[in-house]
Structures are given as C-alpha cells and as structure tokens.
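Fold this: F-box domain-containing protein
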Amino acid sequence: MSPVRTLNDLPLDFTDIFWRYEIPVADLATLAGVSRASYMLFNPLLYRIVRITSPDARLFMKIVQQHSHLVQYTRELHVLVVLFSEQQLSETLQRLKTLFHILSVHDNSLQILHLSLSWARHTAPPLLDLWESGLQLLQSVFPPMVRSLNTLRVPLLRTLDAELDFWPWGEAIVLDLRPLLEKVLRLEVVDVPLNHLPLPATALPNLRTFVGNTQDCLTICDGSRPLHTLDLSLPFPDYDLTVMTNGCQDSTALLSRFALTTTLQRLFLVHGGRQDVGINSGDRGYLPLATFHRLARSCPNLTHLEVCVDGSMEEIASVLQLLRTLRWVRIRLRHAAFASARREELERTILKACPSLRFIWLENHGAAHMAEAFTQRNAATSSTFLVERQAYGSFSLKSSPYGLSELMRRYNAKDLDV
C-alpha cells in the first residue's frame, strides 16, 4: 500500500471528517509539525478558513507572494480590514487584486467570501487638496481590484458579502459586482449593493437570502428566485416602504414584489444602516396600520418578522392574526404602546390572535430619542418573551432567558429558532 502523502490519499471517510469538523487551528499546527509527512497532510487544513484582518497580515502576504496554490484548500475567505493611511489603501487593494487573480486561475473550493473594507473615519483628510488626492488614488486602484473580483472562478460559492465604507469618498465610487453575480449560479446568500442597477432574471437562480435596501429589493424580488429571507434597510429620512419606479415615488410597488415572492418566510425591516438603528430615525418610520395590514396580506407565509408599527396592542394583533405561521416577531413601538405592553395584555391580544408565535420581542423605539432623563432612570427599552404551551392547549408567556448580548448575537447571526 502506498504511503499517505496528501489529503487526497486518505480514505474518503477520513477526508470528510477533517473537512467537516472544526479542528482547532492550534491542534492542526501541532499535527503539521510532527514530521514532513504530517506537514504535507495537515498543513492544507490550516487554510480551510482564512481571516485577513490587517493590511499587513502575514497570512495575506504569504498567500499572495509565495504559496498561491494554498487557495485550493480554502473554503471560507474573510477579509475584514480597516485602513488608516493612503499607503495602506493602495497596498491593500493591489494585494486583493492579486489574491482574486490567484483564485481565478487556480482550482478552488471557496464557498464563503466576506469582504469588508473601511476607512478609519477619524483619519479622514479634512483639507480639500488632501481629499482630492485621496479620491484620485482610490479611483486609480479601486476599479482594477473590482475587475479582478468580477473575474473570480468560484463555482461552489454559496455566500457573498461585500461591504465597503470609504467615507468621505464613498459617493464617488461604485462597487458593481453584477458580472460575478450573473455567473455564480450556486449563490444562496447575497449581501452586496446593487446600486439600483438592473440584474438579469437569469442571475442568482438559487438565491435564498438577500441583505440590502428596499430599492434593490425591487430587482431581486421578481418572482423567479426561491427567496426565503429578506433583510432590508429602510432608507433615510422617512424609513418607509416607498421606492422609486419610473422616476416617481411609489408606496405599493415593494408590497407587490413581496406578493410575487411566495417562498418568503423571513422578513426583517430595519431602519437605515445597521449602525444607526434607532439613533437617526427620530419620530419617523412607523408603518401605519393600513400599510402593515397590506404587508401581512402580501406575505401570508411569514415565520419571522421584524417591523416598526404605529398602533396599540389590539390593533397590531388584528394584523398579526393574518400571519397564521408566524413563530418569531420583533416589533418596535411608540413609547405609550410599549409602556402598556404587559404580559397579561400580550396574552390577551397578540398571543390570542397569533397562537403560532413562540418568541415575542417588543422594543421602545422612541426611547433612543427621548429626553436624557428617561434613560437615566434605567427604564426598560425592550421586553422578550417565550411562549409556553399549557394544559388543555392554552399558551402563556414567560420572560426570555437570553441576556441582551446573547440576544443580539443570535439576532445578528439570524439564529432565531427557539
């Protein structure tokens, strides 16, 4: 029997174990250092998940300059870099261009690509001449990196997440990844700005989760994709469902697109960017009850819903009763409505109207912009409840066991099953 020299020489059962299970990196490094043979065997596993968090990351340089063949073992690539100087900006984008070129010419098994580049805001140049020089630099190095990204050959890619924050130059550059979106047919999760640009109906045939804004949702929700989850940012300043169609504001077009997406089960409507939720929204963004009713009619199969509503518990319950499969709900309320949301009131209204619920999360949406004295009293700004089945088929509420940090971790990961 020939000696085992690489992962491909192992029996399939062993290979599957190594790839499928999260063996700690320290353990893999120890195994790789036992002998030359074990190095050949285990070293590739060190590159299964690659995280680049610095422009000068040793791993980044190693792959780009010396060992490009190692990308064939990478299943997940996470580039999360904050830039502090124009030199870092230039070098990082050029290295990323090289890295993406390597991925395009080597066979790879990449399934998750997360790209997050941001400019450290406190280092933003205040003077006009420096602002212009930074813009010129960005316009010279950014387009080649994007072109390299769009030439990727990643047939197994399932998740694509790209987020760029080059303030104060952000409005002057556009991240257009449509060539990549059109050719990667296995993509299931996409968090990429479409910049209100058209996308062929044949693109993203297996898309299940889309994270973006309401305007781009018009492009995605055309009835041809098996969408399961929409995580949408409502635009400043009104934070409502209004979108632009044919150059005019339209408050019903998005609801019509929701109705076309019959596979939709999870809908999260978030105010603004995810960094300013509740901070800049002021007293805006509450869906009127009539709009909330039309939303429920458009998405009758929802199991998870996040929404900001203007109404009492009785009025909200009258809408939730239309969602017969709803299991998880997060509702942002006006201060008066939140203050009246006692356990007994919720059992009498929300739970009676929607007995399928298993988790209820209520928030005082107005608390973020009320007088400072309100927050100093340590008044509650959110309440979470689990639903328990009682004898004879009845239900009751009990306080959720999750602390705020765990609650937000689960929410951000969309790990919402209870």
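The CA atoms of residues 146 and 175 lie 7 Å apart. The two ends are 50 Å apart (CA to CA).
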